Amino acid sequence: MPSKPLSAIVLAAGEGTRMRSLRPKPLHLLCGKEMVLYVLDSLADSDVGRAVVVVGHGAERVTEKLLNAASETRLEFVEQEIQRGTGDAVGVALTAFGVDELDDADADILVLPGDTPLLRASTIAALVEAHRATDSACTLLTADMDNPTGYGRVVRGKDGRVDRIVEEADASDHERMITEVNTSIYCFRAGVLGPALRRITTENAQGEYYLTDVVQVLSGAGYRVSAQIANDAAETQGVNDRLQLAVAEKELRRRTNEGWMRQGVTMVDPTNTYVDTTVILASDVTLFPGTILQGACTIGAGTEIGPNTRLVDCTVGTGAVIENSVARNCTIGDDVHMGPFAAPEPGTSVPAGARLGAS
Questions:
Q1: How far is it, in rounded angstroms, from Cα 197 to Cα 177?
Q2: 220, 292, 298, 335: most buried by Cβ count inside 10 Å?
Q3: Would you state the pLDDT for residue 124?
Q4: Residue ranges of the alpha helices (H) in 182-269?
Q5: In what order do the strands lie in the sheet with 298-299?
Q6: Which residues are bridge partners to 259 per DSSP?
Q7: Quick one: 34 exposed, middle or buried, by C-beta within 10 A (0-12, 13-18, 19+)?
């Protein structure tokens, strides 16, 4: 039996429902990878056929990076020229879909913000599964937070279904006490999303089209709106300032290091080892504290790197030892001993067996 069609809309135009005032300027780079790419990675277990990314005016750099990234998901881009809220952004994204796609009774559409790099693929897969198991018109991913400040609150009815989402600026004192919050991540039945968007207004504190208002439109029309509570609230949080960026990078670094150690890489002190997701490590590589590997580095088997070494876009052969050194865009051969205090010029090719650095 063929799987139901599933598409995704990723809002990367700067629209957000969380603490917008804390967003001093766009935060594009995260651990050597475009932030939106991490969000697209979270679709890996959900059989998403296409992803429509909503970008802001002048977002050519983001578009080019995403297109050049390896991905099995078909990517398309639409531009939201004027940011008038998340509801407007999704409406713009729907222009990329054909009438037949939106009228397909079996089709679903995921909507995700582009600033949630900690999302796991298993979380999104569970959201889609819950959405289809309950035959809901909309299922939102929620989180239970001790401090929900800045987030929209989820208001449930007596039957436990979701009635509406109220943004903090529009919430009453009683509603602000609710700890279940909206994460801005949804799964919609495709056929109901467009008509519901046409019924929302800008009558709110921000004067924008809130995607959250679609929830009340659907529940008020008698459709089932469900919620799936995330197992880990931390992975649903957006990155709105430099502090949140540092927290997210720390968690992504932990996940990256853990993955490599499970594949046979030794990290003497994982908390002080920095490896971009674009780096490739062979088995039996040893990384000492203070090692920083960035960009398109490839490290051969049995090589030891560090302590206090930074390599950027370098290829290193097997059995090499590189300590207390810095190199960029270099090719370093097998069994090279480099360091301490070596700093070859960018583009240098170090032959196999060579020794360089302070004696």
A1: 28
A2: 292
A3: 97
A4: 190-197, 213-220, 242-262
A5: 280-281, 298-299, 315-316, 331-332, 349-350
A6: none
A7: buried
CA distance 9 to 96: 10
Overall CATH class of domain 263-356: mainly beta
Q: Which residues are catalytic?
A: 18
CA atoms within 13 A on the CB side of 78: 20
What kind and span of H or E run contains 175?
A: helix 173-176
Q: How far apart are CA 154 and CA 278, in angstroms?
A: 38
Instruction: Give 312's strand partners.
Output: 294, 328
Three-state secondary-structure class, residue 250:
helix
H helix intervals, 20-120: 35-41, 60-68, 86-94, 99-103
CA distances from 167 to 73, 304, 320 (A): 32, 52, 56
**Which of 7, 199, 179 shows the shortest CA–CA distance to 93?**
7
Q: Which two tokens stand for residue 174?
A: 């009683």
CATH entry 3.90.550.10 includes domain 6-236 = yes
Q: Residue with structure tokens 């063929």?
A: 2
CB atoms near residue 134 (< 10 Å): 14
Q: What's the rounded Cα separation, in Å, for the pair 154 and 227?
A: 9
Q: DSSP labels for 272-290? A: G-EE-TT-EE-TT-EE-TT
- DSSP states along 131-157: HHHTT-SEEEEEEE-S--TTSPEEEE-
SS3 121: helix
SS3 217: helix
Asked if 19 and 150 count as a contact pair (C-beta separation under 8 A), the reply is yes
Chain centroid offset of residue 259 CA: 18
- Residue 159 makes CB contacts below 8 A (sequence gap 6+) with none
The predicted-structure confidence for 259-272, as pLDDT tens digits, reads as follows 999 999 999 999 99
pLDDT of residue 79: 87
Domain range summary for the chain, segments of one domain joined by +? 6-236, 263-356
Q: Cα 103 to chain center, whole Å?
A: 29
pLDDT, residue 136, reads 95
Residue recorded with tokens 């467009």: 194
111-121 average pLDDT score: 93
pLDDT digits (tens, 9 = 90+) for 163-199: 999 988 889 999 999 999 999 999 999 999 999 999 9
